[in-house]
Amino acid sequence: MSHNKQFTLFMQKTAVHGWKVIFILEELGLTYEKVIIDIWKNEQKAPEFTKYNPNGRTPVLIDHRNNDFVIWESNAILQYLVDKYDTGRRLSVAPGTDEYFTQLQWLYFQGTGQSPYYGQAIWFNLYHAEKIPSAIERYRAEVRRVLGVLEGVLSNQEWLVDGRVTVADVSFVSWNAVIGDTMIENFDFEKEFPVAAKWHNRILERPAIKKAWEERNRLWAEIQRSKD
């Protein structure tokens, strides 16, 4: 593990959780080294990894400038980064304010409302050994339900918190960007959820986020070509 950069980020190659962390690292101009964990080889269950995360999941972040402090769970990582290093509050609001708790509310909703349902939609659509139509339809419906929540709120305000883009908005981007690839065939984001799609695309066009996501898409394309 190299310590010439501030952070080490353990992540899967293309899984959205790790790239969500990269979005914030890039936005804040923080230096990091990626360490890729191969979940298909169960590397996340190996002792050299579970010493950092006993739950055996990625991502995990180590902050070498803070006594090699280790933190896991993607939204806990995001909150750590913005609370500690976004001192100018470019992507976050000040702790203790009402807006801060609204920011937390959306991060919790992303972590408990978006992420698990989208993840199950991917699992039953792509990886489950048996095709179970009821499960596939249930989780596709949940994806649309979550988008409906965002559509309704964003129809009345431009951003989720404080009238500007924050970590709360950014936390939703990577999952929403893969709906058509992995969850719902022929999904038309702009047609079904035009307000949420516009919000999503504004965030995805931010230079730091666009750069990171283009790298992720190149890696995803390589994986797909290797299957041909």
UniProtKB/TrEMBL annotation:
Pfam families referenced in this protein's UniProt entry, alphabetically: GST_C (PF00043), GST_N (PF02798)
Alphabetical UniProt keywords: Transferase
EC number: 2.5.1.18
Highest taxon above the source species: Eukaryota
CDD domains per record: GST_N_Ure2p_like (cd03048)
Protein family per UniProt: Belongs to the GST superfamily.
Protein name from the UniProt record: glutathione transferase
Organism: Phanerochaete sordida
